[in-house]
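job 3f2a | input accepted
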Amino acid sequence: MNVELPAPQIASFPHADQLVSEKDLYVYTGLTPRFWQDRRRTGESPPYIRVSEKCIRYRWGDVFQWLEKKKCMNTCEQDMPQGRQI
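job 3f2a | predicted structure (86 res):
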């Protein structure tokens, strides 16, 4: 018996210029709001917009580009801790 699965709902995927919250990023990436907060604190996050003191938003296109830069093809491509030489 051959069962056909429905096509993914591309329309629900955010537009590149759409602003998304940390909770939205969790839904799309599985990375927790704490992850994004920690990355901002260390300067390792994608660009973000501080709408107000407690309201942070990201442009989905910036997040996608940031994630693409993190892509590795094998473990040799991962960043080595500073001070460590191969």
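job 3f2a | Confidence is low (pLDDT under 50) at residues 7-11.
job 3f2a | closed
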